């Protein structure tokens, strides 16, 4: 008798830099979400697909939960809560070294306000290698006093400690359903979008201060060539003319090194040779353009959350 398949959505929630993207990439087995030391780098809801036995776990890596100030911030936070509403299970991540911050308390308060609530909510205390065991015991008690979690996991998403236990638990919580994706698909993002995210990650890692939050990347052209390689044309939108010089660097050295790093990662991901061409465009109002939000998979709105 065939085993019944299960399939469902797991939303990863938490403050910026809690380790959601790192955990998603580990679960999926390859990098599909931006991971940097800078906060608020995930802008869209990214779905990564992971299989364990007869279970297909569809992870939703949401933008970090924070106090929004700009239109883009509001759209990102709205997308995060939207991902929670659409899920079967929620994993709430906190950083062991930061503990129960005021932001964590605010987010848990909002989590309690949901009407149509998922069956299970677990907490994953991440980056456990950064604190002592006695501090972890104290933190486990404190976080469960703030919210009645069904399960508590102590993990290091970067090193993989405790992640398999979390994955097994999640697989057991999913509804009996046919799989939504083929067994060889790891994400529901188009390749064009993944390539744009790779370029944005390299820009974010190389550039400093606010500039990474003032730019976006779109894949404008994609040409599969007869020799098996692919030609990719990308547009990098910046908000100010002065930003172009920063990205270009002396004699174009900065954009050249960024391009090389992005191309190498694209080749690893696609398993083929990539010819990457980038153009810089100044769009002072891109943060207020509906089309840019649609490209990022976010909802454009003037209203408050």
Task: List strands and helices in order, with pairings.
Blueprint: E1 6-14, H1 20-28, E2 46-52, E3 55-61, H2 71-85, E4 89-95, H3 102-112, E5 120-126, H4 133-146, E6 151-154, H5 163-173, H6 191-206, E7 215-224, E8 230-238, H7 241-248, H8 253-270, E9 274-282, H9 290-295
Parallel strand pairs: 1-3, 1-4, 4-5, 5-6, 8-9
Antiparallel strand pairs: 2-3, 7-8
Helix pairs in contact: 6-8
Query: Which CATH class of the largest domain applies here?
Result: Alpha Beta
| CATH-derived topology of the largest domain | Rossmann fold
Helix run count: 9
* Rg from alpha-carbon coordinates: 20 Å
**Sheet with most strands:** 6 strands, mixed
Question: Explain this structure to me?
Answer:
Helices cover 35% and strands 23% of the residues. With 305 residues, the protein is α/β, with parallel strands linked by helices. The protein folds into two domains: 6-173, P-loop containing nucleotide triphosphate hydrolases (Rossmann fold), CATH 3.40.50; 191-295, K homology (KH) domain (GMP Synthetase, Chain A, domain 3). A six-stranded mixed β-sheet has the order 2-3-1-4-5-6, with helices on both faces. Strands 7-8-9 form a three-stranded mixed β-sheet. Mean pLDDT is 80; it is low at 36-43 and 64-68.
List the keywords:
globular; Rossmann fold; 35% helix; GMP Synthetase, Chain A, domain 3; alpha/beta; 3-stranded mixed sheet; 2 domains; 9 helices; 305 residues
Short description:
The chain is of the alpha/beta class and 305 residues long.
